[in-house]
Design a protein that fits this description.
Mean pLDDT: 60
Number of domains: 2
Distance between the termini: 42 Å
Strand order of the largest sheet: 4-1-7
Radius of gyration: 23 Å
Largest sheet: 3 strands, parallel
Structural class: mainly alpha
Helix content: 55-70%
Order of helices and strands: HHHEEEHHEHHHHHHHHHHEEHHEH
DNA sequence: GCTGCTTGTACGGATCATGC
DNA sequence: GCATGATCCGTACAAGCAGC
């Protein structure tokens, strides 16, 4: 259980009260286009009812709870109304939340547990991408980047599956089969176990574990990522403002990205200044603050630099940001995408342009195949799609 | 409301690709 | 040739959430 939920100084009732106020305000502000959570659920129910599953009865039995788990691919498609810079769905909220889950489920559907993403055939890859693509309605403008983000999310899903499965290696095959029906036979599971017990793999695994252990800061964003957490932050900010309390980081850091990077690694109490920051976050904040101070005399109000080793976040970390990525920006925005553009086109963009035709073709084929066996998916959110 | 399982995410270094 | 960008994969962690 999360520590913060047990000892939160931000009173629960107060949070709920602010939540209600915020929600009502949000509804007014977005009147006509936004839909509340209950409306979303009703929409989902309507769509599900219009696409009944073969195994479900339509009598007045109490509605079965939505099945939980990784294999629960929905029989409708999500309407994507907003994207991150790299093409990940960010709205609707349902599409944002469903994206990674869907990619993971699709990976488990088409890939073998013994597969390596780098060795998987183009056919399987494109089938995965096409299956996810038919479950998300995106505009043509965003299609390229969306497909690239699908590619990343699917292989990430495959990696997650394998990591989780390695913790189940001592369980009998019957349990494994029940848990992951896509594992076709015992031989496949045995092969996976054998590969996972290979000294070379164990050595690699140990190396990766040691690598992970070197990461001093763990974010506290949760599975809804920063977009989800921002809603919580807004509530906390309102409470702090009402109490007349200014978070210490506000007085220390001017750069928004550095500020948010620090915050996502803090508990609410640390952010509010009620509890001291953990040493890694404290060091980060102080280093970043010192860097800003030193730059203040050089620049007026723009701290964004063209070199990553000159950014506030890099100064805070005292090392270069992750190779090729910009921290705290989407799921790690590409350098070219975040910092001032260069004339050249990034490699990934070139690659995408080259592969779009192939993917489109695979999608068309998959769509055709799917249309022969399953009815077309109905858009999930009718309200939002009324353009 | 609590428990505990499931999930998505960011991260790391190595390595390969690309641009100048 | 060098500097930088992009990709790969396995992991730990915190939050989400189904089920009781």
């Amino acid at each position: 259980m999360g520590k913060s939920s047990q000892k939160s100084v931000l009173d629960r009732k107060e949070v709920d009260r602010v939540d209600e106020e915020f929600s009502s305000g949000e509804q007014i502000a977005s009147s006509g286009s936004g839909s509340s959570r209950s409306e979303e659920r009703n929409n989902e129910r309507r769509v599900e009812e219009s696409n009944p599953q073969p195994t479900e009865t339509t009598t007045k039995k109490p509605r079965k709870k939505t099945p939980r788990g990784s294999h629960n691919l929905k029989e409708f498609c999500y309407v994507v109304t907003g994207h991150s810079d790299r093409g990940r769905p960010e709205s609707s909220e349902r599409a944002q939340k469903a994206f990674a889950t869907t990619c993971g489920a699709v990976a488990r559907k088409y890939c073998k547990i013994t597969d390596e993403w780098s060795d998987i055939s183009e056919v399987v890859r494109n089938t995965c991408i096409a299956d996810v693509a038919r479950r998300f309605q995106v505009t043509d403008e965003w299609r390229e980047r969306f497909l690239a983000s699908v590619n990343i999310a699917v292989w990430n899903g495959l990696a997650n599956w394998k990591t989780t499965a390695r913790k189940w290696m001592d369980k009998p095959y019957e349990i494994i089969k029940k848990k992951w029906p896509s594992i076709t036979d015992e031989a496949e599971w045995e092969k996976f176990k054998k590969e996972s017990s290979d000294p070379a793999f164990i050595a690699k695994s140990e190396r990766m574990r040691a690598l992970r252990a070197r990461k001093p800061l763990n974010h506290m964003l949760g599975s809804a990522r920063k977009e989800g957490k921002k809603k919580v932050w807004r509530k906390q900010d309102q409470i702090l403002e009402a109490a007349g309390r200014v978070p210490p980081v506000h007085n220390m850091l001017e750069d928004q990205r550095a500020r948010e990077y620090a915050r996502q690694h803090m508990t609410p109490e640390e952010w509010a200044g009620i509890e001291p920051m953990q040493p890694p976050v404290k060091n980060f904040t102080e280093n970043a603050h010192n860097w800003e101070e030193s730059k203040r005399s050089e620049t007026s109000d723009n701290f964004m630099q063209s070199k990553r080793w000159e950014s506030v976040v890099t100064a805070g970390l005292q090392k270069a940001e992750h190779t090729g990525r910009v921290l705290d920006k989407d799921e790690g925005a590409y350098w070219d995408d975040y910092f001032p553009p260069t004339p050249k086109r990034s490699r990934v963009q070139k690659k995408l342009l080259a592969s779009t035709e192939i993917i489109e073709q695979a999608k068309a084929e998959a769509r055709e195949q799917a249309s022969m066996t399953t009815p077309p998916l109905t858009p999930y959110s009718g309200e939002e799609w009324k353009v």
